């Protein structure tokens, strides 16, 4: 996890420094279609996640391609999911197609854990396994999850999956196993080393640029600028969960 | 004549007693088999999935837990409201409540994804969680009702039975409110998010608990070759009728509020009209077999023999069946109905958004669910045999009456 | 009552499973001590004796820090343990009975559930780490294309 321990730490450090400089000019374009926004500074490994930040994501559905599945495949690869879509298979992110019943207007958008500020999953979890990290990322602590699935009953976005089978060969950075509930982590292992979630990265690399990830508490972040520039909504705003994921264009 | 010595605990009919135990034990073994198989292979073997996350085991578990609190009702009427006929039945009622709760909780635990972490559930409490509060209520229920039983059965402590009875009464109301709230607090789901959920569960618990009590009581009397006193039977019959009627009434109110105030039209349409299996289970199981038919049975004048069957077995058994149907509709129907994330839109995805979720339970779910019933059954049989749970004085009065006839 | 006892035994069993991770009584005489494969590198992050007694506490403490607070130091991280101690032969710490974790734990018969979720092999690095190292192990054209400076 710590890049300093790796043989390629020099390279990594160089990259990190480069990013820092990039962040100073608030969002540098590293390559066409690859934007590194909102990485204000790297957090040292021994430093705990802080509530000075709240990670969020803005999804522009007008840029999200119908039939495009790039974010989903990137997530599956990063987190070691099979990508199968049976009723008992885990899906951390999925593409949802919606059609306005009155006008027939069709849209497509990715749906995943919305990283609610007031997460119902955390409220109901009897053991406290469902938790919100200081920086707003909602996670399941598999060490204390008893697999009661109450959080799945409570989540308004069907964001969670239960692992129905024993697993092997997990990604060392993404432990997951039978009998526990899991959901999108915003790729916390990547975020902790100042990278973007796999879905966001994939979407932008492929040139769709439908997702902007960043710090909601940083007024200078590209995320906040985009939020300020155009109207956006949270799905099921009636529940007042103040989701970390917001959508534009619906 | 010889049977009179066997009324409470006797050594007689050991063969049949053992057979009953063996039957119950077999059912429990089945549940253990399912448990260990699932523990090894995971929940793939069940019909439960990421859409229907709580399945048949939960139908049984919640039913048993709700019925547990209702079974205590008889004791409460005795202690709290001072009705003598019910006072005599308080020990049986308390014992049944404990047995039912034990059965229900066992199913819940056996169905966990990580049952080996039960110790975690007991040491990590999230006090925001109504589920965690339930665990506290359940443990407290065991303690208080246990204490209550002791005060009832020990002459020296008899004086305490009233205050402890009060405590048990209120604790039980809390418990059922909490159980109902497990669903009521699920704001996300159209079928659950209702303040009426908790009171409805309380009313229904009265009906289910009393029904189970009546079946057990009748079985005990029959087992011992006795006949339940006419007056007692009539009282209980009327009480059951009131509870069943009230449950029906609440069901109507629940769906009407959903229709007129909460504007949950789509969900109501699903349950009441075109939900397939759920609509059928609702109308045929919950309303007809669990409500209307028992009411007719309870009020229809019959000959004495026929009355005995209808009042003491058939009507309560139907109420129990209706209760399971109600749980099925509430728990599974509530999940099968697609969650509305984008109102006014037709929704499709790889994760079964926008479609009615399919559920077909496998053998393992039946084994787990029935295991809870088995545990309750075995505990009851053993307790009735080992302690004096037969309603006492009533039996005495009955004999006096007979002799004067 | 016998059935009651059976039910109690079930409960006891469950507790036993949970507790088995804590209580360990090493066998005394007559059994060969487990052969423990030497890890990569010169020495462990802590003194060996200390590690023998306290590795579980260190790991548990670190797991909570990482999981709940996002502290990602590497000194006591399970992932790093695996990287050093994975067996030459099986490439894993718990695939065969001789592997580092399995050797001791089967000797002391202490059940582990770490490997229900955690990888026993250092194995595949995440795509982004690959990007930094430049070694391509997983084919994912999307992600491989995200290296800084590379133009599409
Ligand atoms: S989207 Fe669901 S899983 Fe994610 S934080 Fe909100 S309630 Fe929890
Ligand atoms: S399944 Fe796990 S995370 Fe979800 S509510 Fe139960 S214990 Fe909490």
Structure description:
The complex is a heterotrimer of chains A (250), B (405) and C (152). Chain A contains 7 helices and 11 strands. Chain A is of the alpha+beta class and 250 residues long. In chain A, strands 10-3-11 form a 3-stranded mixed beta sheet. Chain A has a two-stranded antiparallel ribbon with strand order 1-2. In chain A, strands 4-5 form a two-stranded antiparallel sheet. In chain A, strand 1 (28-31) and strand 2 (34-36) form a beta hairpin. The longest helix of chain A has 16 residues, at 9-24. Chain B is mainly α. Chain B has a single domain (20-340, 348-393), classed as Formate dehydrogenase/DMSO reductase fold. Residues 1-5 of chain B have low confidence and may be disordered. Chain C has 152 residues and is mainly α. Helix content of chain C is 47%, strand content 0%. The longest helix of chain C is centred in the middle third of the chain and has 22 residues, at 48-69. Classes of the chains: A alpha+beta (250), B mainly alpha (405), C mainly alpha (152). Chains in contact: A-B, A-C, B-C. Chains A and B meet through strand 4, helix 3, helix 4 and strand 8 of A and helix 6, helix 7 and strand 1 of B. Strand 4 of chain A pairs antiparallel with strand 1 of chain B. The structure holds iron/sulfur cluster (2 copies).
Percent helix of chain B, as a range, is over 70%
Number of domains of chain B: 1
Ranges of chain B where pLDDT stays below 50 over 5 or more residues in a row are 1-5
Portion in beta strands of chain C: under 5%
Distance between the termini of chain C: 75 Å
SSE succession of chain C: HHHHHHH
CA radius of gyration of chain B is 22 Å
Distance between the termini of chain B: 18 Å
Name the hetero compounds present. iron/sulfur cluster
Indicate the proportion of strand residues of chain B: under 5%
